[in-house]
Amino acid sequence: MTKISILYPTTTGARFDFDYYVQRHMPLSIDLLSRHRGFKGVSVERGVAGVPPGSPAAFVAMCHFLFESAEDFMEAFMPHSERLQGDMPNYTDIEPVIQFNEVLISR
Amino acid sequence: MTKISILYPTTTGARFDFDYYVQRHMPLSIDLLSRHRGFKGVSVERGVAGVPPGSPAAFVAMCHFLFESAEDFMEAFMPHSERLQGDMPNYTDIEPVIQFNEVLISR
């Protein structure tokens, strides 16, 4: 199982429109990607607090897609990459950190 | 719903013993925390690749605990914090990035 993590670093002076992200961008993204073979799930989160207590979260937002394999994700994403990446300026000017993960434990 | 993310940044020259982490530390951690009220799930991952292709993953490993609330997690974790944090040098010398997240979408 592969998890694709899209992490938006907390950046001074940057903007992140959660209304647009949660009500427009992510529903579109999920609608397009969840139709594809191998889609297993998705989670979208808002960074609330860091450690130690009182420190800001390192990431203002995170999104995690779960697919059977990285190949399944790429096949799902590539046909829509321009549309989805082109929508990003509508909610943020932060460059996300993206990585592929092998899921070792899940329960 | 609250997700607690523990992210280990990829660090040149650092060590991370996945055998110990996956076979000893995380099973102990899950055993202790999953007994508590509000535990909803856990995921443990190994960073495989970054974006653009060929770049390393920003995080060598990630762990995400899902709890009903941050309070439930703290109540579950605090009685075992010394034991669990004291076990960390057995698998890594990387200081993790830890943050609390509000789950906005989950499916």
Shape annotation of chain A: globular
Helix content of chain A: 25-40%
The amount of beta strand of chain A, in percent, is 35-45%
- Number of distinct beta strands of chain A: 4
Pair with the biggest interface: A-B, 36 and 36 residues
Oligomer: homodimer
Average pLDDT across residues of chain A? 97
| N-to-C span of chain A | 13 Å
Name the strands of the widest sheet of chain A in spatial order: 2-3-1-4
List low-confidence stretches of chain A.
none
Count of discrete alpha- or pi-helical segments spanning 4 or more residues of chain A:
3
Question: Could you tell me the radius of gyration of chain A in angstroms?
Answer: 14 Å
Helix-strand pattern of chain A: EHEEHHE
User: What structural category arises from helix and sheet content of chain A?
Assistant: alpha+beta
What does the largest sheet of chain A look like? 4 strands, antiparallel
What does this structure look like?
Two copies of one chain form a homodimer. With 107 residues, the first copy, chain A, is an alpha+beta fold. Chain A has three helices and four strands. Chain A is globular, with a radius of gyration of 14 Å. In chain A, 29% of the residues are buried. The mean pLDDT of chain A is 97. The interface between A and B is large, with 36 and 36 residues. Strand 4 (97-106) of chain A pairs antiparallel with strand 2 of chain B, so a sheet runs across the interface.
